[in-house]
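Entry type: protein chain
Record version: 2
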Amino acid sequence: MTQPRQQHSDQQSDAAHSASRWEERYASVEQLWSGRPNDWLPELATDWSPGTALEIGCGEGADVLWLAEHGWRVTGLDLSATAVARLSREAERRGVASRVTGRVHDVEAGLPEGPFDLVTSFYVHGGPEEGSLDLVALLSHAAARVAPGGHLLTAVHAVNPLWHTHHARTYTADALLEG
């Protein structure tokens, strides 16, 4: 019986370490990302009817803010309190705070209950180490939150970006579709 407790403790430790790494990364700079939404979002979602959306790994919130400015009610999840605070401040500044909910949240603890009309996840990372985020499982859980007629929109790294020092997993479209 001590085995499951140890495994649970290890998973909590892995999650805390990952959250700490992302928090350090955000806290070390005034702005980590460009502030522009990921290219796929406006390209694909401009003509979709606004509804409810869930953004997994929202960072400083460029996608969340774009969606809110286009009429969506959006929940953004991220490991970093600094990133979520930046999202909240910018939502206030842009006058869309009533349509934005930013939450510091580890997706391995589960996702908010749906359904959502749109679930997005852009460049969320896992790692090869045991206990690292399994993107295939995450996207399967995300797909289960999509309302009938809704959309799941994701983009992942097929190769690691140069700034990745922990050798994150990479995925092919086939591997993701198999999940």
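Comment: The chain has a mean pLDDT of 81.
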